[in-house]
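Training component of the fellowship. As part of building independent skills, the fellow (R.M.) carried out the full modelling exercise for a liganded target. The chosen ligand was zinc ion. The inputs are recorded below so that the supervisory panel can assess the work.
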Amino acid sequence: MTNGALTDEALLALPKAELHLHIEGTLEPELAFELAARNGIELPYASVDELAAQYDFDDLQSFLDLYYATMAVLRTRDDFAELTRRYLRRAHAQGVRHAELFFDPQAHTARGVAFNDVVDGIGDALDEAERELGMTGALILCFLRDQPVASAEEALTAGLARRDRIVAVGLDSAEVGYPPSLFEAVYARARASGLHAVAHAGEEGPPAYVYEALDLLGAERIDHGIRSIEDPELVARLAREGIPLTVCPLSNVRLQATPDLRDHPLLRLDDAGVRVTVNSDDPAYFGGYAGQNFAAVRDALGLTEDQARRFARTSIEASFASRERKDALLAEVEGWQP
Ligand code: ADE
Ligand code: ZN
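Fellow's submitted model of the complex:
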């Protein structure tokens, strides 16, 4: 037990699972330029600095516009492998031992990239990280909620042939106006095929979307879920049913969902008994990877050793790793000495 504030080093060393990470959101400006050159694609920015200067967002949509435009540099299996390799190395240096990676297949197949090149490229890097760094991971196929349901059905059909890599389905992209109810049938098919289910809800959208994600989609975890704080009955239900929230503090600040981190509901949700975890969402765009999100919470809200350890433990328990892997990682968390 330490008396002073947790140090950056301690928070980076805390063993943790990353449960809310869009692999396309780890595309750092330097790599975007490298891949653009390799693939003969012209980015509409003169330099890395000019691209990085665009990372000033008003809301989710203003981010998504840049996110989808920039990921156009990702074309080949090797591109996806390189993207994932760089992410996993950074994440490992910040204590991540298990990573469940969201990917947006519709955003790639719509550009003519083969579904299997995306899955295999990410998979190559996951295998390498397991061999070289002892990390584990898996993929979560996200449906773009602002695209037609028929397109989500196609993505699911492709995904069901890749259950060797894909453990769950998720729902992302522009939230308001695209309620979870639209995807009830797609999720039913995914779950009937044995996939786990998670969904973004309550990032910009209302608490009603969190209820829909639970009741209509069968979501086992809620991604973000921060607007649940507006509905005490929902908070009580999340706590009672043990539904984990994958919270992304720096993302919420950058996308103005919680413009001031000091107002963030993370610790209020924890106090109410909700199982919260700390994640990085799109770290190349939002200013920090997993450990840096913990440090930001410490700076803005205060974070005790008990809280940090609890969030790490929850991230492992709430993951889709095997029982054996979870037990090994939980032992690492207990051995953490800040
Ligand atoms: N896609 C990538 N990041 C996202 C976020 N924070 N919310 C919804 N969709 C996303
Ligand atoms: Zn997200």
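The panel noted the following from the submitted structure. Residues 8-28+83-334 form a domain with the TIM Barrel fold (CATH 3.20.20.140). The chain has 17 helices and eight strands.
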